[in-house]
Amino acid sequence: MLTAILVLGVGLLSYSQTRQLTGKVLGPDNLGVLSASVKVKGSASGTSTKSEGAFSLTVPSGDIVLEITSVGFTKKEIAVGASQNNVMISLTQDATQMTDIVVTAQGITKQTRKLGYSVTKVDGDLLTQARENNVGNSLAGRVAGLKVASTSSGPQGTTKLLLRGNPSINSSGSPLFVINGVPMDNTQRGSAGEWGGGDNGDGIGNLNPDDIESMTVLKGQSASALYGSRASNGVILITTKTGKKNDFSVEYNVNYMMEDAIDFTDYQYEYGQGVGGLKPTSAIGARNAARFSWGGKLDGSQVIQFDGKSYPYSAYKNNIENFYRQGSTLTNTIALSKGGENGSFRLSYSNLGNESILRNSGMQRNTFTLNVQQNISKKLSATVFAQYIDQRNNNVPYLSDGPLNANNGLFLANNIDQNILSPGYDPVTGKEIQFSDDEYVSNPWFVVNQFVNDQDRKRLITAATLKYNFTSWLYAQARMGYDLINDRGLNVTPWGTAYSQGQAGGLGNQSKSELSEYNIDGLIGATHKLTDAINVDAAIGGNMRKNKY
Asked: How is residue 221 annotated by DSSP?
């Protein structure tokens, strides 16, 4: 089966040969395992089991390996042959998971078996194996019931996460992100609508996966109740890396990724540009039919084009790979950590440089992270976390509609070489070279050479915690968190843009915004063993939040 997926974003057309795989995941008693994670190894493709352990998953053609995980069971990998379309998988119980320790709401750690709600922990190592520019995409297929959808808007693109589905028609259903116990802003900075526009990224996309120790997903209402209404769609807790006790280390991590726009569409190359079975006979006629391949049979004859010149009436099959370049992302991270008997620290610096597959578009990000833990006395301890992010998104692409969308070349008639649209503007007048009958369908070469849509962000996330142990089972904790975001935007409709008034272009917008949030909370907690069979875990506290835009 050939599945065609059209993604009108950073010029990416993704097509792949796939097949549908169904099956069941069973426990030791041959009963179906609900909400088990089923993932294609080495891929982001994954799903979770429904009632009776059944699942259905779109997988690549050919031989694959499935990874199956579920709380309380041993992780399993099975090979699936190219001819297999249905599988039965048996899991075995893992006694060691019954004593797993996870971070829950307000940073409290508990054993998994003591929780009355569903918790899934994803180790940081998994987030860097198949690295994504937005760490949210790395959760795909790793958490049962979590739907991950990314946009094709380039390296800064937003990741949409649905943990419980859409709670209402006008709500995105995104979970609350909490880093080291402090809620962080994950607002999407703009999106494409009916008339175009760009996806300027979200908050979780600012984080460096090399600094993350683990991500814990809280699904139940009782799990997220302590964070209030903002957590009605679940909570994802992020714990950052710290120094280890009595250990000194210097870590260096380098990662390089390449990406290409690939097109496996089975286009027809029998009939070329035109309508009604007729070839264009004038420059105006060629412009009006530039996006239609309903003309005469392709015979190699000379046919006039929209620029008034004649070209062979022959098929051009490499327009996508010739217009889009090979994208690349290089990430360098260095970290210094040291731990002693009474404290530890970890200091890291990371640089990410991305060149998008869309020319003159990309992202640069520098991240500085400090994590300090110190025992001030036998009963008093302190932790300090600080992360500074400096990110620049260059020429964020427009999506959805045609104006200033660099992907309009995807719809060229099959005998037009996209190179004749270059450089997209008249070198003398600077005006856009129109290639179609619609002035709102921008010349893609004009967009990549002239368009300006830059988004800069400087962000500081900090958290400081003091904890005092009155006894071995009673403690008090105070914590303050601060999230400060400074954004700058510059959007220019270039001189010569066909649809602008008098083709004069203009300043789309120049903006500066600041968003800050304080969170201060206090907590008194107790963990006491009353008898050999009865333990008591209790906590009481309060929170004060101040948000300013």
From this structure: H
Residue 68 and residue 89: Cα distance in Å, rounded?
9
> What pTM value is reported for the model?
0.77
- Asked if residue 496 lies in contact with residue 412, where contact means CB atoms within 8 angstroms, the answer is no
Reference 71, options 113, 103, 42, 12; nearest CA is 113
Which helix (H) or strand (E) is 319 found in, with range? helix 319-323
CA distances from 128 to 58, 134, 210, 413 (A): 24, 11, 7, 41
| 455 vs 452: CA distance, rounded Å | 10
C-alpha distances out from residue 49 to 26, 69, 152, 387, Å: 10, 11, 27, 37
Q: Kindly give the confidence (pLDDT) of every residue in the chain, 549 residues in length, as a single tens digit, with 9 standing for 90 and above.
A: 333 333 333 333 334 478 889 999 998 777 788 778 899 988 877 888 886 789 998 888 889 999 998 877 888 999 999 889 999 999 987 655 444 556 666 666 665 555 656 677 788 887 777 678 888 888 877 777 788 877 777 777 888 888 765 555 555 667 888 998 888 888 887 777 777 777 788 888 889 889 999 888 887 666 666 777 777 788 888 999 998 888 899 999 999 999 888 887 888 999 999 999 999 999 999 999 999 999 999 999 999 999 999 999 999 988 998 999 999 999 999 999 999 888 999 999 999 999 999 999 999 999 999 999 999 999 999 999 999 999 999 999 998 888 999 998 888 999 999 999 999 999 999 999 999 999 999 999 999 999 999 999 999 999 999 999 998 889 999 999 999 999 999 999 999 999 999 999 999 889 999 999 999 999 998 887 777 778 888 889 888 999 999
* DSSP annotation string for 8-37: -SSS-EEEEEEEEEEEEEE-TTSPBPTT-E
β partners of residue 67: 39, 77
Task: Give CB contacts under 8 A, 24+ apart, made by 370-375.
Answer: 370/345, 370/346, 371/240, 371/241, 371/242, 371/243, 371/345, 371/346, 371/347, 372/343, 372/344, 372/345, 373/242, 373/243, 373/343, 373/344, 373/345, 374/342, 374/343, 375/342, 375/343
Distance CA 265, CA 18 (A): 14
d(CA 538, CA 540): 7
- Residue 533, judged by CB atoms within 10 A of its CB (0-12, 13-18, 19+), counts as exposed
